[in-house]
User: What shape does this take?
Amino acid sequence: MIHDLKILKSFADAIISGDKTFEIRKKEREYQKDDKIKFYVLDDQTHESCYHPIMNKLYEITYILSGWGIKEDYVVFSIKEAADEEN
Assistant: This one.
């Protein structure tokens, strides 16, 4: 499954740089390990679509955590860039 997710530019910058390797999201979807994510970037101030290099990449969910101190109806998952053959 591929999830299309919106993300603010500042968070997209942190993912591209390798500083941010996780996402915190409302449990509005059935996220599963090995699912893929395609990010669509929004400007931090205007929240309108803007181009960002992350939009040309595909990410993979590598671990999912819910419960254990995570607010109800939220999930935390780790991500890594998917292999080139999957992009």
